[in-house]
From TrEMBL:
Coiled coil: none annotated. The lineage of its organism: Bacteria, Bacillati, Bacillota, Bacilli, Bacillales. One of its GO terms (molecular function) is carboxylic ester hydrolase activity. This is Esterase. Gene3D superfamilies: alpha/beta hydrolase (3.40.50.1820).
Length: 248
């Protein structure tokens, strides 16, 4: 089976711009429905694809977390280059921590952090995501062999040495939360790992934004934009952006 790789996408409609950021081992499909929802309500949206993501696992493990971060920055700079002066950022999982990092380093209208990690995860936990990604890719491409592609066997050849550096990015971003004054809305799924629920509290308590809030979704897990309550998530993001004073 031929896998059609996901691509970055841009939908230009209104003067209000939103940068959409996907998660670790994810791709732009994570945020595509949210992008359409916002574009139908007169928001211009742009979603970059992190380097190495969306393709085979070998390509992914040969990239570096700083390259993923640079892809997010390039997405922001693209919207700037198109003349958008007010840019909000919404990201899920790794995209959530990247959204907050952009809030520390670039002018942002607002930030929506969905299921964002704010405490460094163990390398083993991150490595297991790579293994899951490799197995899923094999199944989709029709090359999966139940005998030879067990998690233990796959883990032997999809080691990613730069995951320690990803921990550093998360820790460094978290240490600067108190520099964020942009409005921040934090979304979490109560069926997600407790780690992410605790991260949501840490983000809320650390940012210095006058406008900040946390919203929990009872029946949702980690990727809120794809889970059971996705339509409620889309509406929540839209309402938050609508509550702001834009210069249009």
């Amino acid at each position: 089976m031929k896998i059609i790789p996901p691509k970055p996408f841009t939908i230009e409609t209104g003067k209000r711009a939103v940068l959409l950021l996907h998660g670790f081992t994810g791709n732009t499909n994570d945020v595509k429905r949210l992008g359409r929802y916002l574009s139908e309500r007169n928001y211009t949206v742009h979603a970059p694809l992190y380097k190495g993501h969306g393709g085979d696992p070998e390509t992914l493990i040969n990239t570096d977390p700083i390259e993923w971060w640079n892809s997010a920055v390039e997405g922001y700079d693209y919207l700037r280059s198109q003349g958008y002066e007010e840019i909000a950022v919404a990201g899920v999982s790794l995209g959530g921590i990247f959204s907050l990092r952009l809030g520390e380093e670039r002018p942002t209208k607002a930030i929506v952090a969905m299921s964002a990690p704010a405490i460094a995860k163990s390398v083993d936990s991150l490595q297991s995501r790579i293994v899951d990604y490799a197995i899923k890719y094999k199944k989709l491409s029709g090359t999966y062999d139940e005998q030879n592609d067990s998690p233990l066997k796959v883990a032997q050849y999809v080691r990613m040495p730069s995951l320690q550096y990803l921990q550093g990015i998360i820790n460094d971003t978290s240490s600067k939360f108190d520099t964020i004054q942009t409005p921040v809305h934090i979304l979490r799924g109560l069926n997600d790992d407790e780690y992410y629920c605790e991260s949501a509290d840490l983000i809320y308590n650390s940012v210095k934004s006058r406008i900040k809030s946390v919203k929990s979704f009872i029946n949702s897990g980690h990727i809120l934009t794809l889970d059971k309550e996705k339509e409620l998530v889309f509406e929540e993001v839209y309402r938050f952006f609508e509550s702001l004073k834009w210069n249009d």
